[in-house]
Design a protein that fits this description.
The complex is a heterodimer. By secondary structure, chain A is mainly beta. Chain A contains no helices and eleven strands. The N and C termini of chain A lie far apart (about 35 Å). The model of chain A has no long low-confidence stretch (mean pLDDT about 90). The model of chain B has no long low-confidence stretch (mean pLDDT about 90). The chains are: A mainly beta, B mainly beta.
């Protein structure tokens, strides 16, 4: 079974430029998560989807970040415009249930963003 | 608020020796606890989880974790460390709230484990 796929793996951009990250979850997983991992820190949730619906986006900086999961499968996370402080690893994860307590989240390899 | 503390930034052990990576948690409700491992330039890999039942949880790659409710701890252990176990280990607690934050994981800062030959 294929794991969570993310692309690109690495991205270097100039500040104020837009950037987008793509995630394909494990087949059949209804719940999708985007996390931000700063250097030396644990991941922090940005947004959680159940199918197409964003059910937990309270930690997403909506002035510059946006996300979508149009058909309830793939998801895209966008930053526009990027700032120096956005340099981090962006992780996507998926789980099979509707965020149930016993669900295990499976993570992709992440996208390492560097903003110059 | 839910939180996890990993009191050691680094743990160094010799190959063949037992290892322990410490984790304490704070949660308002039943704790649902997870351990993940992260290798360089890789995502997080699931090791094990505690939901309910036996306090000793067995997971992948020979790892196990002991849940201790009175000490609010969930330490990761392995009887005999391998050089290949060297990686960054994260403890996480699940938000037990049934509202919008259901399913949110709160991670510790991570513990770098180094196993030397």
């Amino acid at each position: 079974e294929a794991g969570v796929v993310q692309s690109p793996r690495y991205k270097i951009i100039e500040k104020k430029q837009p950037v987008a990250f793509w995630c394909n979850p494990i087949s059949g997983h209804n719940t999708l998560y985007w996390y931000l991992q700063n250097l030396g820190q644990g991941p922090e949730l940005l947004i959680r989807y159940e199918n197409e619906e964003a059910v937990d986006d309270s930690q997403l900086p909506k002035d510059r970040f946006s996300a979508e999961r149009l058909k309830g499968v793939d998801s895209t996370l966008k930053i526009q415009p990027a700032e120096l402080g956005d340099s981090a690893v962006y992780l996507c994860a998926s789980s099979s249930g509707a965020g149930a307590f016993t669900d295990t989240q499976y993570f992709g390899p992440g996208t390492r963003l560097t903003v110059l | 608020a839910q939180s996890v503390a990993q009191p050691e930034d680094q743990v160094n052990v010799a190959e063949g020796n037992p290892l322990t990576v410490k984790c304490t948690y704070s949660v308002s409700g039943n704790p649902y606890l997870f351990w993940y491992v992260q290798y360089p330039n890789r995502g997080l890999q699931f090791l094990l989880k505690y939901i309910t039942g036996d306090n000793l949880v067995k997971g992948s790659y020979g790892f196990e974790a002991e849940f201790n409710k009175s000490q609010t701890s969930f330490h990761l252990k392995k009887p005999s460390a391998l050089v290949s176990d060297s990686a960054l280990y994260f403890c996480a607690v699940r938000d037990p709230d049934r509202g919008s934050t259901l399913g949110r994981l709160y991670f510790g800062r991570g513990t770098q484990l180094t196993v030397w030959p």
